[in-house]
Design brief:
CATH topology of the largest domain: Rossmann fold
Radius of gyration: 21 Å
Largest sheet: 4 strands, parallel
Order of helices and strands: HHHHHEHEHEHEH
Strand content: 5-15%
Structural class: alpha/beta
Distance between the termini: 36 Å
CATH architecture of the largest domain: 3-Layer(aba) Sandwich
CATH class of the largest domain: Alpha Beta
Strand order of the largest sheet: 2-1-3-4
Length: 226
Amino acid sequence: MASNKQHKNSAGKALSCSDCGVPNCYREEKKYPDFCLTEAVEPAELDGITSQYRGDDLDARIARASAEVEGTYYGQLTRVEETIAFANRIGAKKIGLATCIGLSEETRILVKVLKINGLEPYSVICKIGAVDKSEIGIEDEFKIQKGSHESMCNPILQARLLNEQKTDLNVIIGLCVGHDSLFIKYSDAPVTTLIAKDRLLAHNPAAALYTSGFYYKRLFTEGRNL
């Protein structure tokens, strides 16, 4: 198991990788800080985990395929293209698409792209089953359109239907925060995300961080009741 040794800041909080300014773990050209998590990992545990990336099982093939795509196409391919390259390297032929209803058109385009590249897409939309939100205890005040039928997102059913199709790789296309968690939990196939939903920022969540010094200063407001 990893070492229980922890370094804490002046407020008594455990320090982690986000507190590090010298990522020596990447190229080992600098010096690890005293609280470095890499140095806290027991050698036997590290060796055991590293062994999972060797051999021919799925974990190992995923690890190698990811590294090969990164190294071969670094800064050259879009994420759509990287997803195709990754699928090819792990031998994934049937690709499940867990799709948000708000990204239906994007999914249709992706389906065409995948087919052109010799893959077999199969999509399941988030509102599958058409179960009203009230059926799981959601009050009308929390519906987007009050006083009407409004189907809940159904990520567990999405996963189950894709499992039945025996997909080789499942791709998340804009599932809501939390719904994506449930989908990943119940998916039999490995899952990757193509689009992370952000309705305000054209599905580019990182933009809020890039502009946090001006437009999105509210991110640093304490005590917001979200």
